[in-house]
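Worked example 3. Consider a protein that binds zinc ion.
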Amino acid sequence: MDILTLIQDEIKEYDQNILLSMTPIPSDNRFNYRRCKNVMEIMVPINGKPTVLAVGFPEFFPKELPKFFDRSNQFNRIPHKEPDGFLCFSNTESMLIDERYPGAVLLSCLEKVIELIEKGLSGANNDEYLVEFEAYWSRQTQTKITYASINTENTQVRELDLWRIPVKSSFALIATETHADATTIVKALFGVSLKEAEKYRCMYLPLKSGTNKTPPKYFSNWDLADMKASLLSNLDPLNKKRFHQIAALKRKSPNTYDYVIGGLPIPNNNWALFGMEIYNPRASLYTNRKNRKIASIILHPFVQAPPEYKTTPLVIKRWNQDYLLNRTGGQSSLKAKHVVVVGVGAIGSEIANGLSKSGVGKLTLIDDDTYTLDNIYRHYLGGKFVFYESEQLGLRNPEKVAAMQVDQTSKYPFTKVEIYAEKFRSVFDQGSIDWKTVDLVICAIGKPNDEMHINQLLHGLPNPPATIYTWVEPLGIGGHALVTLNDNKRGCYQCLFKPDSTDQISNRASFSQPFQDFSRSITGCGSFFTPYSFLDASKTANLALEAGIKVLLGIEKGSPLLSWKGDSSAFEQLGYQLSSRYSFSVEKLHELRYHYIDDDCPICRERGE
Ligand SMILES: [Zn+2]
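Given these inputs, the predicted complex is written out as structure tokens:
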């Protein structure tokens, strides 16, 4: 049985009054109904009046939803109706489809379409024109993309920097608020150099709130007069004045092109951005006798249209940091944070990368180790950056921090990365870091004695930053992150090493019995390593990272000891012994997360006791 008969039979069973009749019609051309092969003409009530729509069933219906069309253009222009009559009724990503009842799927979609049409006819969803303004804007013909970083919270008319950058046989348009690091950021994000680029005048005109603008009709471009009227008549008086001031400035750059970007306030505190390029072929004639371009006042095309010009609508793609972060669930509140990562080995490198990815504004990386071939299957950087060519010394291994800096700044150009290829102690003693500016320290060295020392040094500061110590256990049994100095000084790394009844010290957080040696050596002295995999390192890094972000956001309080527990079979097969702490359930580990605190700790105990 074909799908249409199937649906018809199913729908007969329902008591419903929105699908009044259905007649299969031939789909002469598969592109006529957006590739739907099966098409029906249906009669539905719109405002109580029987009305004809077309419905197409895509190849994978009901996995794919039916498509509805107003082919005879009965409703003229309503929001969400496209030029071919297609009615865009739903964001299909979030809709769960019960494939067993294709007829019911059709009916529930139809309900939405009827609602969409009725709202459109009554004007109740005219807001949607604002919400969809950018989508409509992009349907003009011969558009160009402009990548723009605009701070829409600033509602002043102002100039942006706009470059026209040659890319192969074409040009890229990139605009930004004036930014000292623009060259670096553009290079990192777009892979193009601003050196070859010509800079042009670009004005940003944010419209006053309450502006109600209907977008251009499909495939019919706004001309210069439309753009000028829409923008200038919707500026508040101060912004209008600013526009005329900027428009009157003498230009040093060529005036062949002028760019205008409008900002339209739309619901939910958002802005629709749309632009226009105005090409003035005669502007380049303003040269002096030696054929150099001279500074000249060419009136802004909004003030006086050039005798000859060509306009092109600009579709704006955003690349400002807040926008990029918010799209991915990143935290724009982290961009003011400064985090110091001590140790950028397998765990520290993952942590540093995670912090950049979360939008942390500044990283300081401290590690005196070099990056070598031995690192690549555990370290975040992999096989990249293992060597560089030195003028005198030939092939050399870079410092880990230097390799990380190159990697991170090229991937996350909004994050500042500062590095010290030294031991923590010397950085600390030289006073290189202003600890008052640091929001968080994460120590991922994995050497207890170094970390005890750092713990002691940081506890000695008048206002020490929150500090997390993190390390991984051998052979996949687990990893830990200890949060300290988070609002109060109780609980520290030293607490973990409280002497036992026989006055011996060991790490009490450990999942392995103390005094076992896990280090392996392949080539003898100097290359000992603890056996753990990149997965163990990643899990541990994630544990520390999550704790760190919660500390930065003020969600995590106090100084918990956090642990993840892994599989112990490889560990036990080799004859190693687990600690009693390993036998605790996840719930118990959580419950006891503050129990490590040692009331007699020489570092963090209450003074005067
Ligand atoms: Zn302590």
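Take a moment to read the result before moving on. The longest strand covers residues 158-167. Residues 130 and 266 are 6 Å apart (CA to CA).
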